[in-house]
Amino acid sequence: MSIIPVSIALASSDARFFTFSNPRGDRTFPASPANVNPRLQRVRVDTDHLVSILMVEIEAIDSKAKEALHMTSKLLSNPSTLKSIALCLETCIDNYNVILESKRRVLDAIGTGDAEQLSAELSSNADNIFNCEDAFKEADIKSPVMEMDSLLAKMITNSLIIAVDMVYF
């Protein structure tokens, strides 16, 4: 984790601004008025930071879903894969594709600050992972993608926690 130095400067109008020095250039944000609770003054900065973390997490989910799709496709194309496993893998492939298709909607919801849409998309993605695992459970077969699904479920859950409980749009 890197620490970004923060400086506070007073403008001639007595407004406060935060200036962040970082490798991508300085950014200045208006601060809350001085009479606001100091913990609330951090909300804007914390939210911007959390949104950045959320976007990185969404990219990681996309990458892991592509990896899962590749892995399941490879298993499905293996001639020794049993028909019962192949049917479950097809369910997983369909669900991974839905997760990949939702990325744009998730990023749009973040960009527009639409917390309800973001929550709905991420919840739907979690359901897609559970649908994959449920296919194997219903067939009474040990899932060959259980570890991948578990990791994806954790990543999506983390994103939901950040989006619903920590980010204030």
Automatic annotation (TrEMBL):
<keyword id="KW-0732">Signal</keyword>
<comment type="similarity">
    <text>Belongs to the PMEI family.</text>
</comment>
<dbReference type="Pfam" id="PF04043">
    <property type="entry name" value="PMEI"/>
</dbReference>
<keyword id="KW-1015">Disulfide bond</keyword>
<feature type="domain" description="Pectinesterase inhibitor">
    <location>
        <begin position="35"/>
        <end position="162"/>
    </location>
</feature>
<dbReference type="InterPro" id="IPR035513">
    <property type="entry name" value="Invertase/methylesterase_inhib"/>
</dbReference>
<dbReference type="InterPro" id="IPR006501">
    <property type="entry name" value="Pectinesterase_inhib_dom"/>
</dbReference>
<protein>
    <recommendedName>
        <fullName>Pectinesterase inhibitor domain-containing protein</fullName>
    </recommendedName>
</protein>
